[in-house]
Specification:
Layout (H helix, E strand, L loop, with lengths): L9 H14 L16 H4 L9 E2 L6 E7 L4 H9 L1 H9 L4 E7 L4 H11 L5 H10 L10 H9 L6 H8 L2 H18 L6 E4 L2 E4 L4 H13 L1
Parallel strand pairs: 2-3
Antiparallel strand pairs: 1-3, 2-4, 4-5
Helix pairs in contact: 5-6, 5-9
Length: 218
């Protein structure tokens, strides 16, 4: 049985938030220079869950983001930066973008499992959950809040509970996170790989545009 239940308390949610802030959290903003590099071919190797790719498969720049659904910096990036990234780079064929699961706590794991339940609409559900993070991640009854938000997508309570009991899905989300930690040295969110260069922390829009401009020249 996955290691969370439907009575996930506010105390547990706040403990998860504290872990995200003080234990495994990234700095508020990424350093302007990359902190390491992983060959893109290795980064794109087989994973326990298939990638959901936004953009053209043959785009010259690949961005892989490792995120946690309860990470406030991840939510801020998707609210403040991702829309411009999608409009100016992903939709124009310059960038392909992949978000991968790196849950920092059981609630984030649950949210990712429920997002995967949406199939190729996983990223749309992720965006919804980031946009409404305050309504489910840090409330008295987080899983009740999560169920309430996901009702907007048509997900009923029976399917909600069945998804959270899916042991194989739970293990696969965990394997994506464990592979990232073991092979790529990830210990915080968000962490980005841009054509293999590693950036830990939220990247402001202006800084991201500069990085992508440099990548386009190389």
């Amino acid at each position: 049985m996955p290691s969370f239940d439907l009575r996930f308390s506010r105390r547990a949610a706040l403990a998860a938030a504290a872990l995200a802030v003080f234990g495994l959290a990234a700095p508020a903003f990424a350093q302007k220079a990359p902190s390491g590099k992983i060959p893109v071919e290795e980064l794109m190797g087989p994973n326990a869950l298939p990638d959901i790719v936004e953009g053209k498969a043959d785009a010259p720049i690949t961005i892989v983001e490792y995120a946690s659904m309860t990470c406030s910096h991840c939510a801020a990036f998707h609210k403040d930066v991702y829309p411009a990234l999608k409009k100016n780079f992903i939709d124009t064929g310059k960038v392909k973008f992949i978000l991968r699961e790196f849950p920092l706590d059981p609630l984030a794991t649950a949210a990712f499992m429920l997002a995967r339940n949406a199939g190729d609409k996983r990223d749309a559900v992720v965006d919804l959950l980031f946009a409404q993070q305050k309504n489910w991640a840090f409330v008295d009854k987080p899983l009740d809040g999560l169920a309430g938000v996901l009702k907007q997508t048509g997900l009923g309570q029976e399917k909600f509970e069945a998804t959270l009991k899916d042991q194989q899905l739970f293990e696969n989300v965990s394997k994506v996170r464990d592979r990232a930690a073991e092979k790529f040295g990830i210990n915080s969110t968000p962490t980005f790989f841009i054509n293999g260069d590693k950036y830990s922390g939220e990247i402001p829009e202006a800084d991201l545009e500069k990085i992508l401009a440099e990548k386009a020249k190389s």
